[in-house]
């Protein structure tokens, strides 16, 4: 806050998990982070299935469904959610992302590699467009 930054990015030590802080110092992690990336993914791939770990909230499920997607909760563990997304895709159910509340995420377009930097880069591309239009990341999840 003291620096006046528009956005803060947080990674774990091996950069496979990520979180965001908005300009007001509010964290966008856990369910809100999943909601942000789900909103972005569902704009690109309407109707896709978002695979999450089992600890997500009912509010997140309602949010994803309101955006036209499906949430598929699965057992905890990043390999578990990634493998479930791979299984769903192999069986004909489109799934573009596997993500845990820990910020551990893997996107289909990035070969389902667990890559926090890729997740943040995808969010930053949308963030630039939002800012250009006078909006901010929290605007994406106002209905959460």
TrEMBL record:
Gene3D superfamilies on file = Alpha-D-Glucose-1,6-Bisphosphate, subunit A, domain 3
> What is an annotated GO biological process for this record, any one?
carbohydrate metabolic process
Q: Molecular function terms in GO for this entry?
A: phosphomannomutase activity
Keyword set includes Phosphoprotein: yes
Q: Any idea where the Alpha-D-phosphohexomutase alpha/beta/alpha domain is?
A: 31-142
| Sorted UniProt keywords | Phosphoprotein
Q: Does the keyword Repressor apply?
A: no
- Supply the PANTHER family for this chain: PHOSPHOGLUCOMUTASE (ALPHA-D-GLUCOSE-1,6-BISPHOSPHATE-DEPENDENT) (PTHR42946:SF1), PHOSPHOHEXOSE MUTASE (PTHR42946)
Q: What is this protein called?
A: Phosphoglucomutase
């Amino acid at each position: 806050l003291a620096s006046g930054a528009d956005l803060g990015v947080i990674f774990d030590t091996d950069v496979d998990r990520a979180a965001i802080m908005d300009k007001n110092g509010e964290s966008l992690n856990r369910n809100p982070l999943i909601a942000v990336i789900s909103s972005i993914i569902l704009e690109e791939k309407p109707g896709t299935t978002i695979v999450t770990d089992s600890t997500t909230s009912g509010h997140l499920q309602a949010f994803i469904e309101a955006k036209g997607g499906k949430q598929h909760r699965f057992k905890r563990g990043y390999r578990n959610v990634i493998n479930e997304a791979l299984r769903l895709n192999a069986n004909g159910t489109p799934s573009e992302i596997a993500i845990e509340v820990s910020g551990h995420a893997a996107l289909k377009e990035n070969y389902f590699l667990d890559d926090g930097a890729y997740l943040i880069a995808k969010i930053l591309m949308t963030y630039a467009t939002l800012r250009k239009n006078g909006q901010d990341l929290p605007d994406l999840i106002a209905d959460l």
